[in-house]
UniProtKB/TrEMBL annotation:
Annotated InterPro entries: Cyt_c-like_dom, Cyt_c-like_dom_sf, Cytochrome_c4-like, Cytochrome_c_Oxidase_Subunit
Localization of this protein: Periplasm
Residue ranges occupied by any Cytochrome c domain in the UniProt entry: 122-214
Alphabetized Pfam families for the sequence: Cytochrom_C
GO MF terms held by the record: electron transfer activity; heme binding; iron ion binding
Main location (coarse class): periplasm
Signal peptide: 1-25
Post-translational modification: Binds 2 heme c groups covalently per subunit.
Protein name: Cytochrome c553
Keyword Lyase: no
Organism, scientific name: Bradyrhizobium erythrophlei
Length: 214
């Protein structure tokens, strides 16, 4: 077993125990609702950063700050219902009440730390073109058509502005690989065929461009 695998197992177990205990405590009415929210946010910070800015590491964790609350709630429900697979997030999410899902999503919506940046700038012009105009010759629609001209998303369509470069590359790459195999990095029926038509360099260009949007 590698050190990375062991770390993930321990982290999953720790989060599962904590959230389960917190959930039972809330059922008994022990802590206040605000106290329960603050306790859960402490564990969100473990992976997603002190201000929801994401985590740059071997396994990049997404920026949640400024994200559309409807999108966060929808993804947490997808983890609970196993329509989106991640052992850590399932153990975190499945003990959350509907009201807590809403409270967490609303909290992250109000955060706005400065994006990490750091993505390679050489292909930003290409990324901007794909984001704004798409690639008609490759049947790739403009990202802005759904995610907005500033990449801020709406309702269940996620904000891309300021998202970690490595995370966006990973998500788009996952959709490319999973097309037609019965599973994907989330439940989007739109993103899999779109990502499949992007080359690796185009994936990296789009990811770099949106990472610098604010």
């Amino acid at each position: 077993m590698t050190a990375i695998s062991l770390r993930l197992i321990l982290q999953t177990a720790m989060l599962a125990v904590f959230f389960s205990a917190a959930g039972h405590a809330q059922d008994r009415g022990a802590p206040s609702r605000q106290g329960g929210l603050e306790a859960k946010l402490e564990y969100c910070k473990t992976c997603h950063g002190l201000s929801g800015q994401g985590y740059l590491g071997y396994f990049p964790m997404p920026r949640l700050a400024g994200q559309q609350p409807e999108y966060i709630e929808a993804q947490l429900r997808a983890f609970i219902e196993r329509r989106r697979t991640n052992p850590i997030m399932f153990n975190v999410a499945h003990v959350l009440s509907p009201s807590m899902l809403t409270a967490l999503a609303t909290h992250f919506r109000g955060l706005n730390p400065k994006p990490f940046g750091g993505a390679p700038r050489g292909s930003i012009a290409m990324g901007k073109r794909i984001f704004e105009e798409g690639l008609p010759e490759s049947n790739v629609p403009a990202c802005s058509a759904c995610h907005g001209t500033e990449g801020k998303g709406q309702n269940e369509i996620p904000r891309l502005a300021g998202q970690l470069y490595a995370y966006t590359v990973g998500q788009l790459t996952g959709w490319k690989k999973e097309r037609g195999q019965g599973s994907a990095v989330d439940t989007s029926a739109i993103m899999a065929p779109t990502a499949h038509n992007l080359t690796r360099s185009q994936v990296e260009a789009v990811a770099a461009y949106v990472s610098y949007l604010q």
